[in-house]
Write a structure and sequence with these properties.
single chain, mainly beta
Length: 272
Amino acid sequence: MSSFSQGKYALAISDRSGLAFPYNEMVREWNGALVHNSEYEPKQPQLQPKPTNADPQALQRARPARTEFATEDFLPNNPITTTATNTTLKIDFPNGDLQVNDFVRLRNVKSPVGGVPIVTGASGPALELSTTLDTAATLTDTTITVQTGTHFPTTGFLMIEKVNAVTGLFENETIEYTGRTGENFTGCTRGTSAPYRGATPQRTTAGTHPIGAKVFGAYKVDSLNTTQVKGTGQPEFTTQFDGVNVTLASNATSTETGGGLLCTIGPINDRA
């Protein structure tokens, strides 16, 4: 019986391209097709996926997903600007992504600006809105009385700080109020939350608070400061976020830019 030719000078037709190639350079693919070695394609692994088994049981210590409260951000050096005989307070916050009707709280301000003190002792505006409870607050009180409140906005949100004596965890309560007369915040909705960066965090829980508990306020963002920056591509101009404007309780006495280094801005409550 004669043997097959070695195909030294033979040609073969590729099943893929239909071109002629040297016979000895042909290979067989997984599907039986005869192709040139330059055309060879291995079998796609997804055609035969490896079987996987499901977990035999639920996780022993599962933790559900949750939405964390936003935290405070550092501001650039001397980020606060006042205007003489005007209540507008300009806050530089590049790329801060805040929105109109957000509520923000200033902290760690290092120096007064435009005659506006960092905190107030009796009356007048203040950069940092803080005070203490003048009377204890029950679970259902809709009027909250503080030591000094005239530097707070007439409507908005306040936060009462509370630390659990057993666990050491913060149990702060955010409260929305619709009016303020002197040191009394009226029309209070207990256990709420204030919008920040266009989103409203999960509600806090109403609680009882003793005399002397720390109380903090927030400024409502009235408008945004932006700059149109010309680029090299499309679109031709892009909007750059520079900061926000808020309203003081009363006029600043002079035009000034200041506040110091490492001032921070953030939501009224970042310790829910």
